[in-house]
Amino acid sequence: MMGPYGYGGMFMWLILIVLVAVIIWFVIERSRGNENGAGQARETPMEILKKRYAKGEITKEEFDRMKNEIES
Asked: Which of 10, 12, 50, 58 could form a disulfide linkage to 62, CB 3.0–4.6 angstroms apart?
């Protein structure tokens, strides 16, 4: 058969390979996030307000009121 450990030995290697792959993926994604976040300028309050209105989080009246407050 497969020796004294049977299929358990192969299963443990598979788990180890998957674990290492997940750790590598996490490190790469984390480093990408730092590069993107550091290079971007901060959003202005008006840009944030426009995005909220576009998503439907606020009404037209709320948008106009907040826009006037930002501009004044």
From this structure: 58
> How many whole angstroms separate alpha carbon 42 and alpha carbon 64?
22
pTM of the model: 0.44
- Total domains in the chain come to 2
Residues 34, 5 share a domain: yes
Q: What are phi and psi of 58, to 5 degrees?
A: -130, 155
pLDDT digits (tens, 9 = 90+) for 21-61: 999 999 998 888 655 555 556 889 999 999 999 999 999 99
36 and 54 within one domain: no
Q: Name the residue range of residue 49's domain.
A: 41-72
Q: 70: which residues sit within 8 A by CB, 6+ positions away?
A: 45, 46, 49
